[in-house]
Design goal:
Radius of gyration: 20 Å
Number of helices: 6
Helix content: 25-40%
CATH class of the largest domain: Alpha Beta
Oligomer: single chain
Number of domains: 2
CATH topology of the largest domain: Alpha-Beta Plaits
CATH architecture of the largest domain: 2-Layer Sandwich
Distance between the termini: 16 Å
Strand content: 25-35%
Structural class: alpha+beta
Length: about 250
């Protein structure tokens, strides 16, 4: 028996599939690859795999994680290559490491970072947006209506916001497929004479406290009087909680 943790990306090709459908895609790929995955007991056995924080439909990511239990030891490179050969376009494993700890990735996630493309409906300048962010982050509490499984309740989200910054959009640094898609969006947006910005966020995530970027931006608009409109959300990293410190999931596994 052995365990492997992987880091994988979710591109535009699969951004509209649900978390459940993504899990089914991995299950089919595992079956076709012939990898020695462990299965649960019972009438309807399932592969023993656990995924990190589910990604909302329409969101892309360069940092998703999953843990797999295997019946026998296999080299991480071979595992990655065989599984990648069977995964659909848009899902790609970019790192794999032997997992030696007992915890699972879903329970360990504590924070998430995002890169969000936004425009200002009021055509607010970069300086004005940053001033609004500074005032927003200086507040002692930020109360919003947050939906839980059973009800909607008032929740203070201030302690769930670790980082918030807006930057001019620069698509010249990395000609990735992600940035090329955004470049097309920016060109289309020029006809509306609205400037697109990059909003960088690090927020609480996971089972203990979870703040979605959509709710954060809604709260910012309400408090600041500005009106930022989301054009695209891209998750850039997930972090796990190790002794109260946000850490790289691949280093601590």
């Amino acid at each position: 028996m052995s365990s492997i943790r992987v880091k994988f990306t979710r591109g535009d090709e699969v951004k509209y599939i649900s978390h459940l459908d993504m899990m089914k895609a991995f299950e089919r790929a595992l079956r076709r690859s012939g990898l020695p995955i462990s299965y649960s007991q019972g009438f309807n056995p399932h592969p023993k795999m656990v995924f990190g924080l589910p990604l909302s439909v329409g969101v892309t990511s360069e940092a998703e994680y999953a843990d797999f239990e295997l019946e026998e030891i296999i080299e991480t490179r071979e595992f990655m290559e065989r599984l990648n050969s069977q995964l659909p376009s848009g899902l790609k494993i970019i790192d794999a490491r032997e997992k030696k700890t007992k915890g699972n990735i879903m329970a360990e996630i504590c924070r998430a970072s995002y890169s969000i493309r936004v425009i200002s409906e009021k055509d607010t300048s970069l300086e004005e947006i940053n001033k609004g962010i500074e005032q927003f982050m200086n507040k002692q509490e930020i109360i919003v209506k947050k939906e839980t499984k059973s009800k909607v309740k008032d929740t203070d989200i201030r302690k769930m916001i670790f980082f918030m910054q807006v930057l001019p959009l620069d698509l010249t640094k990395n000609k990735t497929s992600y940035n090329m898609t955004l470049e097309n969006m920016t060109s289309e947006n020029c006809s509306n004479k609205k400037t697109m910005y990059e909003l960088k966020l690090t927020l609480s995530a996971g089972s203990k406290a979870n703040l979605k970027p959509e709710l954060l931006i809604e709260a910012f608009n309400s408090v600041s009087g500005q009106k930022l409109i989301i054009k695209k959300i891209h998750r850039t990293e997930l972090f796990v909680d190790i002794n109260g410190k946000a850490s790289d999931p691949m280093i601590v596994c």
